[in-house]
Amino acid sequence: MDNMTGWNVSASSTNNSDSIYADDSELDTKLFGRIIAAIMIMFIPFILGGNLIVLIAVMSFVKLQTVTNYFVVSLAFADLLVGAGTIPLYAVFHLQTGNVVENKTACLIRYALVVESCGASLLNLLFISIDRFIAVIYPLRYYSLVTPKRAKVSILILWIYITFVSLLPTMGWNLWNDDSVCDFYEIFPKAYVVISSFLLISVCICLATLMYVRIFLEAKRQHKKMVIETAHRSTSIKRRLERDLSSAKAMATVLLMFVIFWLPYLASAPFRFSPYMSNDLINVIKDFALCLSMSNSMINPMIYALLRKDFRAAFKQVLQLKLTQLRTASKNGNKSDNSNSGVSLKNTPNSEMNLTKMTNSIPVPSVIGVNHICEVDNCSDSGRESTLAVL
């Protein structure tokens, strides 16, 4: 989807000044490639850390194990693929390590990872919008239409489909030859470019946008109805409507941020046909736009933390629990060292009291109860023990 390796300097060698200019251009190109690689690599810990916390939170809290969040987990896996596979391979291409720039297999795998991670993200966002659409528009039929089994089958089909599409070029559907430059628009047939990028992106974004518009129009209508029928409408129904709308707002924000972060990259694609821009300038624009696109993979956990109270509480408790475990491990290590030096803390009252106090003051996630996230004052000892066993 980009032309990041097509930085071949074409300078005439008819005189010394031209040769020097070519050398300087090549040096600038390598420097720019290192800058882009460094920026991308800086994203990796944030992408991996944030999305791993999402996975841990959903697996640890029964309240978060909903059908909607099955797709959130699948979306997190797509973002993890960006951080663990796509960005490292792109960084290698930017650094022009060895002959990777001219390697057909490396080039095809590079674009396969982009198509799979980007396509999986889009399809997950589409399925999430469908889930929220049914929850708000057809609430009475939601639990009969949207079941955990159907959600899991949908996710499986989603990944099989996008994996197949991403691997098609490696099966022979490509235009690679000995003189090829690793450019998405040059090594792939136009039909594949349309199917894997423009068609997939436009269809998913348009359908999801239409559903969210319908959701918010329905929410507005129901809100007016609730104001009129406040005395007659049950509190549980109000809560359900508010919860569904809040979830829809959060996931619509995820979709909006995806569009915002990827739009500059998609808008830069026609630049390659412009007669007024040099190839180097086009590559600079596209590479910075691609950096922005890649950074989208670290945004979703932040959105969940800001807009969803259930995820915010879960993230807080998971992080506090992990910090407590690290501190406890550190204290145990210090005890072992002191024991070896002839000093024992085993029977020191103050150390036992401090450790107990620290453990009891940390809010711990509970896996007991479908709709309960354990708070500090409400957590039983058995709840803490169960949670520690799970995590």
Automatic annotation (TrEMBL):
Question: Could you list the residue ranges that cross the membrane?
Answer: 35-58, 70-93, 108-130, 151-171, 191-217, 248-267
Biased region (Polar residues) positions are: 343-356
From the Swiss-Prot or TrEMBL record, state where the protein is found: Cell membrane
Q: Does the keyword Transmembrane apply?
A: yes
Q: Where is the composition biased (Low complexity)?
A: 330-342
Segments forming domain G-protein coupled receptors family 1 profile? 50-304
Q: What SUPFAM superfamilies would the database entry show?
A: Family A G protein-coupled receptor-like
Ranges where the record places region Disordered? 330-356
| Family statement | Belongs to the G-protein coupled receptor 1 family.
Q: What is this protein called?
A: G-protein coupled receptors family 1 profile domain-containing protein
